[in-house]
Amino acid sequence: MRVKICGITRDEDGEAIARMGASALGFICVPSSPRYVGVGQIRQMVDRLHSWRVGAIGVFANVGTEPIGNVVREAGLTGVQLHGDETPEFCDRLRAELADGIEIIKAFRIKSEADLERTRLYRDRVDTFLLDAYHPGQLGGTGRQLDWTLLDGFDPGVPWLLAGGLNPDNVLTAIARVRPTGIDLSSGVERSPGIKDLAKVARLFEQLGARGQQRP
Ligand SMILES: O=C(O)c1ccccc1N[C@@H]1O[C@H](COP(=O)(O)O)[C@@H](O)[C@H]1O
């Protein structure tokens, strides 16, 4: 089970969570978010993570391919998460901008079957899907669950992460019900926006037990 913990803003949180066994850490590059971190700060955190086998994913929404490429290179990211309204063609252009091996995760905010259907258009263009809850006026980090019943039989043909309102108390039910390739948590393991609650993160990994983490 791949485990991504998103919204890291402090060196000490990143290091502790990498040590606990996270596959990837997420850094919010969306300026309107309370979890926003600048490129210099991300670089500093990424440098401190070099001894851990952990991915470093930048989360972007509705910005150009060139600024994303610049942040990826300057911060030393291993991947990007597109959390806005990026088109399939945008994903192709971004692929051309990024070095080989940089992971592209496309996030979808799901409120209906039609949203799930739309994910098909991205299948051959990105590496990984992420399904999050839709909440009007907010891009992410909402702490809200999407309607898991919509995901019955969802099999996109690419690895995919379940996100949206996951926490140590509901994560095992979510995995058993939805069977994603991986999970992504942010506000469910926080004390306040951007400040992780390491006791909650530890409880999450206890819950996950011997499942083992995969791919940075
Ligand atoms: O966390 C944010 O502030 C954020 C801002 C803009 C885009 C995405 C953001 N977070 C992503 O939201 C999901 C779910 O978060 P939660 O677990 O429900 O709090 C997660 O993928 C974050 O990467």
TrEMBL record:
It catalyses: N-(5-phospho-beta-D-ribosyl)anthranilate = 1-(2-carboxyphenylamino)-1-deoxy-D-ribulose 5-phosphate. InterPro entries: Aldolase_TIM, PRAI_dom, RibuloseP-bd_barrel, TrpF_fam. Pathway: Amino-acid biosynthesis; L-tryptophan biosynthesis; L-tryptophan from chorismate: step 3/5. Residues 3-206 form the N-(5'phosphoribosyl) anthranilate isomerase (PRAI) domain. Its EC number is 5.3.1.24. GO terms for molecular function: phosphoribosylanthranilate isomerase activity. It comes from the Bacteria. The keyword Transcription regulation does not apply. Gene3D superfamilies: Aldolase class I (3.20.20.70). The keyword Ribosomal protein does not apply. GO terms for biological process: L-tryptophan biosynthetic process. It is an enzyme of class 5 (isomerase). It holds the Pfam family PRAI. Keywords: Amino-acid biosynthesis, Aromatic amino acid biosynthesis, Isomerase, Tryptophan biosynthesis. Belongs to the TrpF family. PANTHER family: N-(5'-PHOSPHORIBOSYL)ANTHRANILATE ISOMERASE. This is N-(5'-phosphoribosyl)anthranilate isomerase. It comes from Oxynema aestuarii AP17.
